[in-house]
Amino acid sequence: MAVTSLFIAMFPRELPEAVERRRENRTKGSHGIMSLPDTPADIGKVDSQILFPSQNNLDSTLPKLSEIGTTLKSLIRNKVNLYNNLSSVFYMFSSIGFWTYMPKYMETIFMQTAATASAISGTVSISFQAAGLLLSGALISKYQPSARKLAAWNVCLGFIYVLVKIAFTQLGCNPGNLAHGSLMVHEGGSGDGSWNLTTTCNAACNCRVNKILPVCYKEEQTLYYSACHAGCSSFVNNTGTNCSCLPTAESTVTLGTCSEGCYKIFLMFLAINSVIRFLDSSGRIGNMLVSYRCVDPKEKSLAIGLGIFLISIFAMLPAPIVFGFIFDKSCLVWGTKCGAKGNCWLYDGETLRYAFNLTAAGFTFIGAMFDVLVWYHVNDLDLYDEDKNVENRRQNNRRQTSQ
Hints:
Blueprint lengths: L1 H8 L6 H11 L1 E2 L2 E2 L6 H12 L3 H6 L7 H10 L1 H22 L1 H8 L4 H30 L3 H22 L8 E2 L3 E2 L11 E2 L18 E3 L4 E3 L7 E5 L2 E5 L9 E3 L6 H21 L1 H10 L6 H17 L1 H12 L1 E7 L2 E8 L1 H29 L8 H17 L1
Parallel strand pairs: 3-7
Antiparallel strand pairs: 1-2, 4-5, 6-7, 6-10, 8-9, 9-10, 11-12
Helix pairs in contact: 6-12, 6-13, 6-14, 7-8, 8-10, 9-10, 9-11, 9-14, 13-14
């Protein structure tokens, strides 16, 4: 950070294009071009005022500590800024929670290994997000769409994202009928939703609840936690035999889940997620431009800090906690470590699918509704000419004062 901050400090206070634009605006009169100065000294004086404004003018654009309260009130009363920040908070809440637990979700719902799930989710998230940001930035720079069009695009993306997340509740591998055992009940008749995998048919096996090593009884599509929990006395070449929990002594179980064709479903899920990640990131540039242009230049630094503060407090901190709670509530079998509750070894896939995706869809839907409000109020905002926005705000203030 120290090294990169040195390069950032080298940037000028104003970009050359902004200086040139101010030069043109100041040489224009109310009925055309102002008469130019007659002498070289006058010309130099005008150029120095345009290109090198006085320190007083520069200081007037810098925020003061005494004005923070007034500036905050102004930012909160700015409807476009307020709704845009709230939209970002809910979008980030959904995105952070969803992608933080995506490896665990792939591992549980699509029966992928932890290493594979982590590698794939990271690759999809970073690569397609980067591609969406770069392409959308290039297109916006070239075609310069209006703020209203960019806001409308964000609204469309939000509702598409919601529909896809709802569809994901139906997309997953069917591991088979889980042979859980019995629901664990504590003293007083209460339970935490976890299961006791010890049954009458495997009680003599003294099975340990370590990390799940599932086996499938294909004739009935029944999934057991392990060959031991199926009551098998022999397990050779990934096949369990002489299993006391199966209908006959000749019945066998094989290592793995009962799902068939799961890899194709997983590829479909990855393809849809990649497209959604790409489209979702394409709306972030427009969202950022609106947040930069909808406020007065003097308020811009505080507006950026306020936006980051809101996202950090209300999205980055609570989102992993909320989505982690969803995983915990979907757990069927908890491991133990030194007599205390450890990691979860077995999840209820169907419950997890619905709770995980519908929660993400719900927060995205709220963000999309705030984007609708941004679209409604952003009609006269110019994303490419800040001076025009300043003049529009002055005219609006005059109208409000005269009323």
